[in-house]
Each structure stands twice: as C-alpha cells, then as structure tokens.
Amino acid sequence: MTKIHSFYDLLLVVSLLTPRTLAKCPVTSVCAIAHTGPSIVSLCLNNNERVLKLTANPHIHTVTLYVTGKHSNTAVLYLTDATGIVQPENRLLADSFGRAGYLTVAPVLFNGTPAPAGRDPYNPSFNQTEFLARHNPTVIDPMIDATIRYIRNVPGINRIVASGYCFGGRHAVRVLAEGRGVSASFAAHPALLQDDEILGVTGPVTIAAAENDFAMSIDQRRHIEDLLLNSTQPYSLSLYSGTEHGFGVRGNVSIPKIKFAKEEAYFQAVRWFDTWGKGSKWK
Ligand SMILES: *[C@@H]1O[C@H](CO)[C@@H](O)[C@H](O)[C@H]1NC(C)=O
Ligand SMILES: *[C@@H]1O[C@H](CO)[C@@H](O)[C@H](O)[C@H]1NC(C)=O
Ligand SMILES: *[C@@H]1O[C@H](CO)[C@@H](O)[C@H](O)[C@H]1NC(C)=O
Fold it and tell me: What residues act catalytically?
C-alpha cells in the first residue's frame, strides 16, 4: 500500500481511485477500416444520375462515379491510384472513409483502361509512359472538376476534401489550387508531384510517404519537405518505415508493419479531414 506523505500524494491516490479517470476513449478504431471482403456498392454504371456528361473535354465524354458513405456536410473526393476504382482495395478504402462519416465520391479515372493491379511496377505488359501520356492532367482535370461540380450539388454538402493515392495523390494536391473548390487534402505516396503544385496549395495538405518509393526518391521527398516548409498553409508529412510505393491502398496487410502503416495513413487522412475539413463555407 502506498504511503501517503503529503497532500499531493493524497490527491494522487484519490484521482487514481476515481472511476472517471479510468474511462478509456477510442482514440482511433481500426473497425472503420476494411482491407478485404466485398465493397459496399458496385460501380453505378447504369445509374444515369451518377454518370456525368463532360462537354469541355475532347478526350472523355462521361465520368462514372463510385459513391459510398452517408450524407455529411463534408464530402471526400477519393482519387485512385493508377489501378482505378475497379481495384477492390480502392473501393474498400473509399468505403472506409464512408464509415468515418464522410460521403465519399470516386470518379472512374481511366475510362476502362487502368494499369494492371500487379504489385510489380515494371510489369512488362504495362507501358507507363503511354499510360501517363494518355491520362495527363488536361484529360484528368476536367473529370475531377465535373466530379467536384456533382458533389457541390448534393444537398447538405458544403465542403470537399480530397484523398489521393500515387497517381491520384498528385491530383489531390493539384485540386488544392485556387478556384478548384477543395478545402484540404491528403496524398499517399504521390507520383509526379510538381513544385508549382505544392507551392500553389490554398488549403491544408498532408502527405504519407513510403520508405522505399520508386516514384518518390529520398531527395525528392526532402525537396517536398523544403517546399512545405515555405508554405503558409498547415501541412504535415509522415514517413512510414518498411513501406513501398502503394502501401496506403494496396500494401500487403499480411505483413504487420505494412498493415499498421496502411491503417495509420488512413487515420492520418481522417484526422486531417476532421480537423481541417469542417466548416460551413465553400471555398
Ligand atoms: C511506350 O509508349 C511510348 C509512347 O507511346 C512509346 O514511345 C514506347 O515505344 C513504348 N514502349 C514500349 C516498350 O512499347
Ligand atoms: C524557401 O524560401 C527561401 C526563402 O525565400 C528560399 O531561399 C528557398 O529556396 C525556398 N525553398 C524552396 C524549396 O523553394
Ligand atoms: C504478402 O505477404 C505474405 C507474407 O510475407 C506473402 O506470403 C504473400 O505472398 C504476400 N502477398 C503478395 C500478394 O505479395
């Protein structure tokens, strides 16, 4: 039994005995995350309401959306990696943002021809140069803008935040540019991120970086940190050990440190949106 020597010891004993101090709060609950199993919705290919017509884009005429989650004031614009929303892991992660309380909308970005889902980026059947040329920002930006317009018309929504992975990670930063209508962004292992895109952000941005990323060298990551240091916007950058490019969405969750990093990157995004994506005004 602890000897009580002073008034302060007494206070400590009293506080330890008070049940209130024993209450445990769920800081982060992994039950919001699904790594496997069926996604909540299949693609809404036959639902005309969710197939947007594009008039200004000479390359793409319609955008199909994957819509999940409940109605909320803030919506998550989910921007996939190159494997697209047909990849189950992308749909499951979009659903996980839904379980975090956000209406989540993912445009189908690659018009039926996403990159193959294999984990090998050097898959010989995949011509990355050709893929990136075909899906360059002049093609993708209007698709994302149409999705943003759709979300803005959903009753009750007054703010949009973006969560993007690899290919979509770059676009999650691009949509923070002036006038595009997004308030805060999360980008996991963004590929091809340009200096002017980082310098042009008009809202809070957070990045999840992989230790070993063929799409972002250590020097590039440090350069991104230098650019963020000069930013007047709130920012953070987390580096996850034992991870490779893609871990935030397609990491191998049977490896404990990768599963942890994938979950932690999800919490990084949700906390960012809970903190910086609230409010009642359109940008
Ligand atoms: C990949 O695509 C580029 C651009 O279309 C082309 O120049 C190149 O030859 C292709 N590479 C292979 C290995 O097919
Ligand atoms: C950050 O700002 C400083 C001071 O203006 C400048 O010297 C430096 O080059 C900037 N860093 C980057 C990465 O642009
Ligand atoms: C995931 O990791 C486990 C354990 O190391 C391994 O057996 C499995 O082949 C990996 N799966 C993929 C798709 O790489």
Answer: 166, 213, 245
Residues 6+ apart with CB under 8 A from 283: 159, 181, 182, 183, 202, 203
Q: Any idea where the domains of the chain sit in the sequence?
A: 42-117+125-276
Question: 255: CA distance to ligand 3 center in Å?
Answer: 7
CATH architecture of 42-117+125-276: 3-Layer(aba) Sandwich (3.40)
**Which of 234, 162, 243 is closest to 202 using CA atoms?**
234
Question: Which tens digit of pLDDT belongs to each residue from 149-175?
Answer: 999 999 999 999 999 999 999 999 999
Instruction: Give the sheet arrangement for strand 51-53, strand by strand.
Output: 51-53, 62-68, 103-107, 74-79, 159-165, 184-188, 205-212, 235-244
Looking at the CA of 229, name the nearest ligand: 2
Instruction: Tell me the backbone φ, ψ of residue 35, rounded to 5 degrees.
Output: -95, -30
* Structural contact between residues 75 and 159, judged by C-beta atoms closer than 8 angstroms: yes
Q: Mention every residue, 6+ apart, whose C-beta is less than 8 A from residue 151.
A: 75, 77, 103, 105, 157, 160
Q: What is the pLDDT of residue 46?
A: 42
Expressed in angstroms and rounded, the spacing between residue 183 Cα and the centre of ligand 2 is: 25
Each residue of 60-106: pLDDT tens digit?
A: 678 888 999 988 999 999 999 999 988 899 999 999 999 999 999 99
